[in-house]
Amino acid sequence: MRLRTLSAAALTAAAALALAACGADADTSTGTGPATDRATTEQDATDEVAADAHNAADTEFAQMMIVHHEGAIEMAELAVATAASAEVRALGERIAAAQGPEIATMSGWLEAWGEDLPAEADMSGMGHEGMQMEGMDQEAAMAELSGLTGAEFDRRFLELMIEHHRGAIVMAEQERGEGENAEAVRLAGAIIDDQTAEITEMTNLRNAL
């Protein structure tokens, strides 16, 4: 009887040890526990710093491209209301629809980085050739377009928007070469691709008029 009692006790102790070992393995396999939680928190903090990392080129790119996009939208909306060609009106709608969200994205970056939005920034020293269209600024280009109608408007709109897109590409290429923030550099690449394609489209439309 005593031997059976001892054997039962030994089995109970062995079972307890096995359960404890399984528990340790589960903790290791699931990656839970204070050390893992601390590592996850540290990685999250690193990712947040990386997302906010930027330099002066990123800030200037976002500030200037917001203003540039606003100018494109102003011209595009005038084309939607004025153009004689359905193709030009459709192009204006696409430009406004694409560049509005990009303005929101870049504005969000500036706020996250603790940088000024264009309306709050001193941009007097940020003169850039990409902001000009055949030597004209936005106000002069809009004044010229507002005095035109029909096919004459369509042709001049396309000519000026081609120049406007070329300016955006110059600014985006500078950001790709000098920027630090990965998201800003990626957007610059997308702007180059998208607006290069639209320049080809607009050139073909202009030649068909």
UniProtKB/TrEMBL annotation:
Translocase among keywords: no
Entry keyword Signal: yes
Coiled coil: none
Stretch forming the signal peptide: 1-26
Ranges for domain DUF305: 58-205
Keywords, in A-Z order: Lipoprotein, Signal
TM region(s), chain numbering: none
Protein name (database record): Lipoprotein
Source organism (scientific name): Actinotalea fermentans
